[in-house]
Amino acid sequence: MHFDGNEWFSIISLLIMFALVLILPRRFPTIVSFVFLVIGSGTALFVDFHLGLPPVDMYDVNDLPMYEWFDLVNFLLYSPFAYMFLYLFDWWKPKGIRITWYVLAWSLAGVAYEWVSVTFFHLYNYGKGWQFGYSFVFYLTSQAFTVWFYYMVKHCYNRTKNRSGPEWA
Questions:
Q1: CB-based contacts of 62: which residues, under 8 Å, 6+ apart?
Q2: Is the separation of the CB atoms in 99 and 151 below 8 Å?
Q3: Domain total for the chain?
Q4: CA-CA distance, 51 to 13, in Å (whole number)?
Q5: Model confidence over 120-163: pLDDT tens digits?
Q6: Transmembrane ranges (predicted)?
Q7: Each residue of 18-67: pLDDT tens digit?
Q8: CB 69 within 8 A of CB 32
Q9: DSSP for 2-15?
């Protein structure tokens, strides 16, 4: 493993994002927070194992064309981003077209963050055909799914929690 700027970028990003998650006032029941953290990394793992490995193999993560242990840090980085996406969604409670604008704004922010990570820190290598436009479509799709997932989790939690469980309005 070659430890350089991309690893430092990942570590610093992870620390900043998890610090934000920890200092924000609690918004969800503990089990729901855990589920929202897992959905971020789970989505990243699913996509990377399908698009970043043979037979598709459209990009590399970090310095090597094969996965290394440090790539786990990159997968963990998606957890606090997904949590913040849903935290702010729950706080703002957009309805109708505002949901679309919310997803679009976060998709653009995701591409911007990815552009910085690729351009300045070489976190990903897109020499195999991946383009930022694909990332935008992925973010639109995954965040639309995440909004749907949010509503399903909220509905299931409120329907099945025991009487003493915390409310989630």
A1: 6, 7, 68, 70, 71, 74, 122, 123, 124
A2: no
A3: 1
A4: 23
A5: 998 888 888 899 999 999 999 999 999 999 999 999 998 887 76
A6: 6-24, 31-52, 72-89, 101-124, 136-153
A7: 999 999 999 999 999 999 999 999 998 888 777 877 788 877 777 666 67
A8: no
A9: --SHHHHHHHHHHH
In a domain, 167, yes or no: no
Strand partners, 124: 61
Q: Tell me the whole-structure pTM to 2 decimals.
A: 0.90
**Cα separation, 82 vs 37, whole angstroms:** 6
- With CA atoms as reference, report the closest residue to 104 among 84, 85, 130: 85
What residue has token string 């604008």? 101
The H-or-E segment that residue 60 falls in is strand 60-61
Helix (H) or strand (E) run with residue 76 in it: helix 71-92
Cα–Cα distance for residue pair 118/122, rounded to 1 Å? 4
Query: What's 107's DSSP letter?
Result: H
Pairing mode, strands 60-61 and 124-125? antiparallel
In a domain, 66, yes or no: yes
Nearest to 9 by CA among 65, 58, 66, 73: 73
- Please give the structure tokens belonging to residue 82: 């997904």
Range of the domain at 119: 5-160
In a domain, 86, yes or no: yes
